[in-house]
Backbone:
C-alpha cells in the first residue's frame, strides 16, 4: 500500500462515494449489520450468518453485506440497516435469524419495507 | 425560492460548502441571486446521501449534489423549471407509516460529534472512514496549520476533558508543548472502569480511526513523537479493531515517519491494562505503561512518562478533535453552555425503556435524557434517582430532573460529569444499598497506597453493610460523614478523593432512607433483605400456585384456588415468589421477618 498524500484522501473519497452511495456502480442494495459488543451479545453474529447464507442461496451479487459498530439503541439490538439505491436507509430492530431472512427477502430483494420490524427511516443527526 | 442546503457535519465533509459557493456563483451568473436564496440548515439525518438540498417551497429533495452538478441544476430547475430527476431522492416510506429517525425520541434529541460515524462505517475498513471525511482534518492540520494554530483552535473551541474532571484540553496541550524534554508522548486513556459505563468502548469499536486521527493531530500540536492507547483487556473487540486500525494507518502512511508526505513522524502502540480502576488516574496509568505497579503519586510535579512530558486525554476527548479542526472552534463553541461546550456521550442504563449510548449537547436536562431519549421508566414506576459519574459521582434525586447538564452544575449538585455513566433508578432501588455497592467496588479497587483510602473506604463500607443488614446504630450517618471528610483529605488521587461521593450524595438527598434503615429497621425500597419480609395479600391471591412452584425452599403453603401463605421460618427472602406472582399478591412488608409472627407460624 502506497503512503497517502493529502490529495489521495479526496481520490479515495470519490471512489468510495460511488460504492457507498449506491448511486453509481453495480450494487443495488447495502445491508449493514450492527456488530458492536451489545449487538453481538444480543445475537447479531447469528443474524449476520443467516444473511450470509441467504445472500449465497439467492446469489444476490448486487447486494453489499457489511458490518458496522453499535447503532446506539443497545436495548433494541440486534439491529441492521437496509439501504436500497435511491431510497433512504431503514433501521430494523430486535432481529433474529428468521426476521433477518424475512427482511432480506421482502425488503432487500422485493423492495417492500417490513414495517413490523422497522424502527425508522433515515439516519442520525450530526453535530 | 429557497435552497435549503444541509451544512451538517456529514454534508460539509461531503463538500456542501463548495456546493454552496458554486450555487451562489451560478445563480449570480444567471441573475437569479435576488430571487433564489441559499440557506444553510442543520443536519436532517440523511447524511449517507449528502450533500442534500431541499428546494422550498416545492420540497424537491436533491441528494449527493456535487459542484459539477450545479450548472445543470441551476439551468434546468431554476431557469427552466424542470427538476433534475437524476439528483432527486425518491422518498420511500411516504406511503408507509415509518417514522423518520429524527421523530424517534431516542434519536431525535441526540447530536453526534464523537459518534458521528456510528453505525455508518465498517470500523475495520479505513476506506470507509476516509470516505466520510476521515483524516481530512489531519491533512488540514499538517499542511495548513502550525502547531500553535491547532492549539489555539482547540483552546477557542472550549473543549474540556471528557474523562470526567473537565480540564480545558487546549490549555493542557499548550503546557505540554512548552514543557522541556524529548521525546514527548501522547496517551489515550481508554481504561474505562465505571460500572455501567461503555462510552469509550463503543467509540473505539465503532470508529477507531477517529480516535487515532485525534491523537495524531494532538501529537503534531504538542510535538510528540510517540503515542499509546491504554485500554483494558476486557474490551477484546475494541482492542482488536484498534489494532487493525493502527495497522491500516501505518500502511497508508497516516502513522509512522513522514505522515501524509509531510515531515511529521509519529506512531501509536496499544498498552493493554488488566482492568484496575485506579489506572484511570493519570499517574497510575503512566506507572502501568512504564511497567510499574499502578499506584498514584503526588502532583506536582506534573505527570511524566519515563521522565518525559506526556499528554493524556480520554477517548472521547480525542474523538472530538478532528471535527473541531475541520469545522472550526466557533462552530463547536456554539454548541453547549457557557462553560461546557460541545456534546457529551452518556451510556444510559438502568430503569429506562431505551438503554444505550447517547450523545447530547451540553446543557440538556436530565429530564430530557431520561424521558425523551430514554423513554421513561418501565412499568409505570416512579423515578427515584439518577446516578452520574460512576463510583466517583453521586445520586441526584428526581427533584433535580430539570438540572441542565454541564461540568459545574453537576459538581454543585454533589455529583460529577465523570466519564459519562448515567444510571437511572426507580422506587425499587435502595439508595443505601447503592452507596454500599459503590463502596464495595472501591474497597476492591483501592490500590492501598494511602491509608485514608485503604482503611477509610473499608470502614465506610463496613458501616454501610451493617446498616443494610439491620445493624445500623445511632450516629452512623455522622460517622460516615466524618470518615468521608478524612478520606477526601487524606487520599492522593481521584479514586480516594471522590470515593465518598456516592455516600455523601445519598445522605444529602435521601437521608430519611438511611434513618429508616437505622432507626426503623426497615428498607423502604424493599431491597435490603434483612429489613423487609414477604407476605401474601389474601384478597389478591387467586391460588394459582405459581409462587408455590417457584419457591425453592418450600416456604409457601396453600391449596389450589385458595389463598396461599408464606412460612416465614423457611423463607430466605429470595424473591422468587414476588417475581412469579402475576396478581401483585406477593407484597413486601416493612421490617425484617417478625419474631412473633415466626413463633405464630410454627404453631
Residues:
Amino acid at each position: 500500500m502506497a503512503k497517502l498524500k493529502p490529495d489521495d484522501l479526496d481520490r479515495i473519497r470519490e471512489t468510495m462515494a460511488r460504492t457507498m452511495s449506491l448511486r453509481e456502480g453495480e450494487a443495488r442494495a447495502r445491508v449493514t449489520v450492527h456488530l458492536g459488543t451489545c449487538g453481538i451479545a444480543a445475537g447479531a453474529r447469528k443474524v449476520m450468518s443467516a444473511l450470509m447464507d441467504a445472500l449465497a442461496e439467492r446469489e444476490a451479487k448486487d447486494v453489499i453485506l457489511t458490518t458496522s459498530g453499535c447503532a446506539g439503541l443497545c436495548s433494541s439490538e440486534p439491529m441492521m440497516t437496509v439501504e436500497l439505491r435511491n431510497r433512504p436507509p431503514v433501521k430494523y430492530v430486535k432481529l433474529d435469524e428468521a426476521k433477518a431472512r424475512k427482511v432480506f427477502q421482502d425488503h432487500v430483494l422485493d423492495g417492500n419495507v417490513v414495517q413490523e420490524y422497522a424502527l425508522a427511516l433515515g439516519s442520525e443527526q450530526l453535530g | 425560492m429557497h435552497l435549503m442546503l444541509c451544512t451538517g457535519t456529514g454534508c460539509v465533509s461531503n463538500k456542501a460548502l463548495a456546493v454552496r459557493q458554486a450555487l451562489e456563483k451560478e445563480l449570480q451568473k444567471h441573475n437569479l441571486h435576488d430571487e433564489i436564496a441559499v440557506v444553510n440548515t442543520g443536519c436532517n439525518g440523511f447524511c449517507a446521501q449528502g450533500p442534500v438540498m431541499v428546494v422550498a417551497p416545492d420540497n424537491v429533495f436533491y441528494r449527493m449534489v456535487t459542484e459539477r452538478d450545479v450548472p445543470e441544476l441551476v439551468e434546468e430547475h431554476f431557469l427552466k423549471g424542470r427538476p433534475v430527476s437524476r439528483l432527486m431522492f425518491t422518498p420511500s416510506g411516504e406511503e408507509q407509516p415509518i417514522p423518520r429517525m429524527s421523530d424517534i425520541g431516542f434519536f431525535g434529541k441526540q447530536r453526534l460529534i464523537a459518534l458521528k460515524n456510528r453505525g455508518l462505517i465498517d470500523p475495520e475498513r479505513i476506506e470507509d472512514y476516509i470516505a466520510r471525511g476521515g483524516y481530512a482534518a489531519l491533512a488540514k492540520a499538517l499542511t495548513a496549520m502550525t502547531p500553535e494554530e491547532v492549539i489555539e483552535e482547540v483552546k477557542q473551541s472550549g473543549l474540556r476533558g471528557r474523562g470526567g474532571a473537565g480540564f480545558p484540553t487546549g490549555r493542557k496541550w499548550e503546557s505540554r508543548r512548552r514543557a522541556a524534554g524529548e521525546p514527548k508522548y501522547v496517551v489515550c486513556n481508554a481504561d474505562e472502569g465505571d460500572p455501567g459505563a461503555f462510552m469509550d468502548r463503543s467509540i473505539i469499536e465503532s470508529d477507531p480511526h477517529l480516535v487515532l486521527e485525534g491523537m495524531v493531530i494532538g501529537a503534531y500540536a504538542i510535538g510528540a513523537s510517540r503515542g499509546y492507547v491504554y485500554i483494558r483487556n476486557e474490551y477484546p473487540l475494541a482492542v482488536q479493531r484498534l489494532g487493525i486500525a493502527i495497522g491500516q494507518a501505518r500502511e497508508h502512511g497516516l502513522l509512522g515517519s513522514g505522515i501524509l508526505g509531510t515531515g511529521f513522524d509519529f506512531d501509536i502502540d496499544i498498552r493493554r491494562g488488566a482492568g484496575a480502576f485506579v489506572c484511570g488516574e493519570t499517574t497510575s496509568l503512566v506507572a502501568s505503561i512504564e511497567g510499574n505497579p499502578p499506584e498514584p503519586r503526588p502532583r506536582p510535579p506534573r505527570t511524566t512518562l519515563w521522565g518525559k512530558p506526556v499528554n493524556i486525554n480520554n477517548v472521547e476527548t480525542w474523538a472530538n478533535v478532528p471535527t473541531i479542526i475541520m469545522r472550526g472552534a466557533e462552530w463547536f463553541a456554539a454548541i453547549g453552555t457557557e462553560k461546557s461546550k460541545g456534546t457529551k456521550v452518556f451510556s444510559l442504563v438502568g430503569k429506562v425503556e431505551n438503554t444505550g449510548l447517547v450523545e447530547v449537547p451540553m446543557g440538556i436536562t436530565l429530564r430530557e435524557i431520561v424521558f425523551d431519549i430514554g423513554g421513561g421508566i418501565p412499568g409505570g414506576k416512579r423515578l427515584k434517582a439518577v446516578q452520574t459519574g460512576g463510583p466517583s459521582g453521586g445520586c441526584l434525586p428526581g427533584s433535580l430532573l430539570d438540572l441542565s447538564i454541564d461540568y459545574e452544575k453537576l459538581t454543585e449538585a454533589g455529583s460529577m460529569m465523570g466519564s459519562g455513566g448515567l444510571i437511572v433508578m426507580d422506587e425499587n432501588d435502595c439508595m443505601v444499598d447503592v452507596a454500599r455497592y459503590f463502596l464495595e467496588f472501591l474497597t476492591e479497587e483501592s490500590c492501598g497506597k494511602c491509608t485514608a483510602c485503604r482503611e477509610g473506604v473499608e470502614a465506610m463500607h463496613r458501616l454501610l453493610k451493617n446498616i443494610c443488614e439491620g445493624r445500623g446504630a445511632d450516629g452512623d450517618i455522622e460517622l460516615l460523614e466524618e470518615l468521608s471528610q478524612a478520606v477526601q483529605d487524606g487520599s492522593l488521587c481521584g479514586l480516594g478523593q471522590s470515593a465518598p461521593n456516592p455516600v455523601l450524595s445519598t445522605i444529602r438527598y435521601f437521608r430519611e432512607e438511611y434513618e429508616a434503615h437505622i432507626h426503623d429497621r426497615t428498607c423502604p425500597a424493599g431491597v435490603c433483605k434483612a429489613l423487609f419480609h414477604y407476605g401474601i395479600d389474601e384478597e389478591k391471591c387467586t391460588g394459582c400456585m405459581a409462587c408455590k412452584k417457584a419457591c425453592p425452599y418450600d416456604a409457601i403453603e396453600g391449596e389450589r384456588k385458595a389463598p396461599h401463605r408464606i412460612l416465614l421460618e423457611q423463607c430466605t427472602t429470595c424473591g422468587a415468589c414476588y417475581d412469579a406472582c402475576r396478581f401483585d399478591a406477593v407484597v413486601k412488608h416493612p421490617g425484617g421477618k417478625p419474631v412473633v409472627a415466626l413463633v405464630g407460624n410454627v404453631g
Remarks:
- The longest strand of chain B covers residues 343-350.
- The CA atoms of residues 30 and 79 of chain B lie 8 Å apart.
- Confidence is low (pLDDT under 50) at residues 596-603 of chain B.
